[in-house]
Amino acid sequence: MVKLYCISILYKGPTSATWLKSAFELQTFNFFQRGSVQEFMTFFCKTIVERTIPASRQSVKEGEYLCNVYVRSDNLAGVVISDHEYPSRVSHTLITKLLDEFAERISPANWPNLQEKDVAFPQVTTYLAKYQNPREADALTKIQEDLDETKIILHNTIQAVLERGEKLDDLVSKSEGLSMQSKAFYKTAKKTNSCCTFS
Question: What's the whole-number mean pLDDT along residues 105-134?
Answer without folding.
Answer: 94
